Amino acid sequence: MPLNRDQCYQAMLTHDPRFDGHFFVAVRSTRIYCRPICRSKRPALENCEFYRLAAAAEVAGYRPCLRCRPELAPGQSPADSADRLASAAIKQIEAGGLQEQRVSDLASKLGVSERHLRRVLVENVGVTPIQLAQTHKLLLAKQLLTDTTLPIIDVALASGFASLRRFNALFRERYAFSPKTLREKNAKVKHLPSSLPSCICRLFYRTPFDWSSLLTFFSRRIFAGIEQLEGETYRRTVAIGSHQGWISVENDPVHSALRAEVSISLLPVLMQVLARLRRLFDLEATPKQITMHLGSLANGNPGLRVPGAFDGFEMAIRAILGQQVSVEAATTFAGRLTRHFGRSIETPFPGLTHLAPTASAIAAASEDELTRIGVTKSRARTILAIARAVANGLITLDVAVSIDQALAKLKELPGIGDWTVQYFAMRAFGWPDAFPHSDLGILKALKTKNPRHALAASENWRPWRAYAAMHLWQSLEKNL
Q1: Where are the domains of the chain?
Q2: Contact, 5 vs 36, CB < 8 A?
Q3: Among 16, 93, 166, 438, which is disulfide-ready with 451 (CB 3.0 to 4.6 Å)?
Q4: Which has the minimum average pLDDT: 157-166, 398-407, 421-430?
Q5: Which long-range contacts (CB under 8 A, 24 or more apart) does 401-404 make?
Q6: CA nearest 193: which of 269, 271, 278, 261?
Q7: One of 8, 20, 34, 199 is an active-site residue; which one?
Q8: Is 65 an active-site residue?
Q9: Residue 401, SS3 per DSSP
Q10: What is the tens place of the pLDDT at every residue in 373-410?
């Protein structure tokens, strides 16, 4: 669906923050593209072009504005896209999906041909997969060059470039100056300090943003050894491929951003780490739009987010352990599972001692090993089934082109029913319309014992039912 020029222009004139990240404004006379909130001189409508993605503006020959910095714009929610394949492909590419695999591999993962994937992206956002990946890498590099003191060769590595020479050449080709020149232009920028060997990035969100509710939710479901909450700071260990390390995240409400500190050991997978953090903290949500749709249900806390997942398999284990038991019991089982199957890791933080158990580690276990840590036999069989399916490549838990098909495939595994897949869709797939209508808390909040009544009531909240579920759960806490 093409952008409405008049609506985009009006949003730009009023600097409406609701549209930040939803489109970019390119100015023909300057060959610069901006966020709609940019405070630079307003161009005439006939001098503007509007693009859904920064990549489309760059492919058309425009350079990013050094004032409003398009690389810092919040991302787009899956609900914003009319095409699920295009949305899934964009998210995969933004998460480094083309760093170590070809376009044909990504297309295969998404269940389509390379030619079809290319056609869908061009039709929907005006760029090819390679062009999208190049822009995403360049914009991440631009952010690191401006906001950190990382050596330029490390910036190239962290941005997904295999060689410094290729990084310099593409940067100069797109932006008409070198990485070194940009670093010199921003020599007076005050960088975020750290006493640890790390890289600090800011991840921006749309306001309002309820950080405290997110931390409260996570605090009750902490994987001991893997995660840690200290005051208003969230920390966890990370393993992606052969790289392992830690992250530490805190809120910066003055700048409407999260301050994410990432250990230097994770620089080669920084793009993946940042994408996972955006998903974990639901940074791409459009809270004002959601609140307007949900009405009185959401008015009391318009900044409430749906807590996501850092890793799909880890989230699947959480969901299974949480079946028909209290949150406290599920957390206890998770800690035992971590100590038994998770590898140990050294970090600067005493509470972070283990990496999350991998699918292959659990897949190699026996049913008896799981029951010895307190898991029931039926739940042990379910955990083993999903671990072996993931380890053997039969299912993927980080992307879904068709939500219905992905959830149906999960339900084919023993012990996985509708509650589990809906909860998983909320948190791992980040699907905003997921709704676990049989959840006891939701039934209690709606004052019904019939899941069908809850499902019928939820129709009014589409396509934001996951947020409705969060508000219903929170209403129980307020009424205690």
Answers
A1: 5-68, 78-147+149-185, 200-431
A2: no
A3: 438
A4: 398-407
A5: 401/84, 401/85, 401/88, 401/110, 401/111, 401/112, 402/84, 403/84, 403/429, 403/431, 403/434
A6: 261
A7: 34
A8: no
A9: coil
A10: 899 999 999 999 999 999 999 998 987 778 888 999 99
Same fold, 5-68 and 200-431: no
Angle between helices 312-321 and 418-427 (to 10 degrees): 140
State how far the Cα of 356 lies from the Cα of 447, in Å rounded to an integer.
38
- pLDDT of 15-58, one tens digit each? 999 999 999 999 999 999 999 999 988 899 999 999 999 999 99
**Eight-class DSSP state of 460:** G
Structural contact between residues 437 and 426, judged by C-beta atoms closer than 8 angstroms = no
In the structure encoding, which two tokens stand for residue 2, read together? 């093409």
CATH 3.30.310.20 fits 200-431, yes or no: yes
Indicate which residue of 210, 282, 398, 439 is catalytic: 439
Choosing among 2.60.120.260, 3.30.70.260, 1.10.10.60, 1.10.1740.10, the CATH entry for 78-147+149-185 is: 1.10.10.60
Please check whether residue 207 is in contact with residue 17, taking contact to mean a CB–CB distance below 8 angstroms.
Answer: yes
Tell me the CATH architecture of domain 5-68. 3-Layer(aba) Sandwich (3.40)
Question: Average pLDDT over the chain, rounded to whole?
Answer: 94
State yes or no: cis peptide before 36, omega within 30 of 0: no
Annotated catalytic residue 34: yes
Structure tokens, 50: 């509007």
- What's the start-to-end Cα distance of the chain, in Å? 46
Tens-digit pLDDT profile for residues 278-287: 999 999 999 9
